[in-house]
Amino acid sequence: MNKELLKKEQPVVFQTLSNALKNQRLAHAYLFAGPKGSPKREMAILFAQSLVCCHRDEDGFACQECESCLRIEKEEAIDFKWIHGDKARIKKKDIVDLQSFFETTSVETGNRRIYFLDQFDTATVDASNTLLKFLEEPAPGIFAILSADEKSNVLPTIQSRCQWIQFRPASQSRMRALLEEETNPENAAMLTEAGYSTKRAKEVLSWDDFDLIREAARDYVLHWDDISTVLKMQREVFIPKTDRMTREKITLWLEWVLYFLKKDEVSLPLSKKVRIQEILIESMDLLRHPVELALFLDKIYNQIRKVVVS
Ligand SMILES: [Zn+2]
């Protein structure tokens, strides 16, 4: 993610770090906290680069292009250690290894060195306690960046030794871009519009019948005046007493129907579209309460059909 986008999406974070860099008023440790999907990792890399880059811009940030910047990004720099807590829980051994790395590598050059503990909120208690000792005796020129989805998941004693930088949730366009790394643009667009979190979106995308449900919805909105469409839904998609007949899968189908309806894939007068939209939204609400799912679906098919053929 480039600097301009970070500046636009996280103006407060950008300004705070920019002031620190420009005025050289740097803390020894930072805690980047903010919901999943917010660009904590991108900002951590940029900030680390900015601590060592010789070609900084007017905001105090790194050029992102020089050799030193690229080495950090590729994790090839000797003065930067990145522990990937998003891939495996950070353990005591990770912190011990980190300490010995910083102890054994030369400080003669006086260069700044940085470590980044990504997703520190998943670290073990032992890891936290070991890190705490490290933070209590900050060595000159060593900077720590910790990231966490929830600040409160980090030990208070660690929080109090870090400067807290709060990120705001990712914008819709960013959510969509993140999801596009996982799936096709159409799926990403629908899941973003329906308000899925990235975590939940990934779960839903992993369902075996995700594509089938999407195509069933597409087929349904294109032929909903045709009675055989309903029969097909009953026989091939939401078949009573099967694994697919669940609240969450029916919700996904309703979300797809709503998405296609809004996307103008159907030619209906506006007033009818609005009425169908109301039916879909009411149905999603109803689905939060206990209902008999087969009857519930039949009611939706009927209601919509009435609107379409009226
Ligand atoms: Zn640079």
Mean model confidence by pLDDT: 91
- The rounded Rg comes to 26 Å
Instruction: Give the class-level CATH name of the largest domain.
Output: Alpha Beta
Tertiary shape: elongated
- CATH topology-level fold name of the largest domain: Rossmann fold
Task: Explain how this protein is built.
The protein is an alpha/beta fold. The protein folds into two domains: 3-169, Rossmann fold, CATH 3.40.50.300; 207-309. The chain has helices spanning 3-9, 11-23, 40-52, 67-73, 92-104, 125-136, 156-159, 172-180, 185-193, 198-205, 210-222, 227-237, 247-262, 270-286, 293-309; strands at 29-33, 80-84, 113-118, 142-148, 163-166. Strands 2-3-4-1-5 form a five-stranded parallel β-sheet, sandwiched between helices. Strand 2, helix 5 and strand 3 form a beta-alpha-beta unit. Helix 8 runs antiparallel to helix 9 (185-193), helix 11 (210-222) crosses helix 13 (247-262) and helix 14 runs antiparallel to helix 15 (293-309). The longest helix has 17 residues, at 270-286. The radius of gyration is 26 Å and the shape is elongated. Bound molecules: zinc ion. Zinc ion binds at residues 49, 53, 55, 62-63, 65-66, 68-69.
Secondary structure topology:
Layout: H1 3-9, H2 11-23, E1 29-33, H3 40-52, H4 67-73, E2 80-84, H5 92-104, E3 113-118, H6 125-136, E4 142-148, H7 156-159, E5 163-166, H8 172-180, H9 185-193, H10 198-205, H11 210-222, H12 227-237, H13 247-262, H14 270-286, H15 293-309
Parallel strand pairs: 1-4, 1-5, 2-3, 3-4
Helix pairs in contact: 1-2, 3-4, 5-6, 8-9, 11-12, 11-13, 13-14, 14-15
